[in-house]
Specification:
Elements lengths: L12 E4 L5 H12 L1 H4 L10 E2 L5 H9 L3 E8 L2 E11 L2 E9 L8 H17 L3 E7 L3 H9 L3 E8 L9 E2 L5 E8 L1
């Protein structure tokens, strides 16, 4: 078996999400990062954040924002992943990346991030991809580093007290900017 291909060999399809997708996208993001369901994958934040990761309003804002795309990733007409792309001058921002927990660890994430980089470059002519990751997520940061992303040391404080982003379980959270030339 080629380790570069996901466990399920059917190639996923990518499309721009619509308002009709919002409830399913919220459920997908929540399942990948929060609560017991997230523990089936390796991207869980359940030990550092409780509460919600996103909500319908936040997802709608990403879909509707100018210069923003929320990609719905499907296989056999089922939503299996998503990611946000936002045009920011010479760079694109990559965020809201979620893969269904039972499909994590099989190469799907690598395929999706590569496709997102290709789409951003072709759509907007950007030369760099940016993202922010919670700085204590060493395993996740290492995964991005293996995909060519670099830590910048640029930190943004976590929005403590704003439960739209979750309820922190520790007091040392911040977002670190990671970048990659594409």
């Amino acid at each position: 078996m080629d380790t570069a291909t996901p466990r399920d060999a059917a190639r996923p399809t990518f499309r721009d999400a619509t308002g009709d997708d919002v409830p399913a996208l919220v459920a997908l993001v929540e399942s990948a990062y929060r609560g017991d369901s997230s523990r089936a994958g390796w991207t869980t934040e359940a030990d550092i954040l409780q509460g919600q990761r996103t909500d319908e309003q936040g997802v709608r804002e990403v879909i509707d924002a100018p210069g923003s795309r929320l990609l719905a990733v499907e296989r056999d007409d089922k939503l299996i992943a998503c990611c946000q792309l936002e045009h920011r001058g010479a760079a694109a921002y990559f965020g809201m990346f979620a893969v269904r927990p039972g499909l994590q660890g099989g190469g799907l994430g690598k395929l999706i991030i590569a496709e997102a980089e290709r789409i951003a470059k072709e759509s907007w002519g950007v030369t760099e991809m940016h993202m922010t990751v919670i700085s204590v997520r060493d395993d996740l940061i290492a995964w991005y580093e293996r995909r060519g992303y670099r830590r910048t040391g640029q930190l943004t404080p976590f929005p403590y007290g704003d439960e739209r982003f979750g309820v922190p379980q520790r007091d040392d959270l911040a977002f670190e900017l990671l970048t990659k030339d594409i």
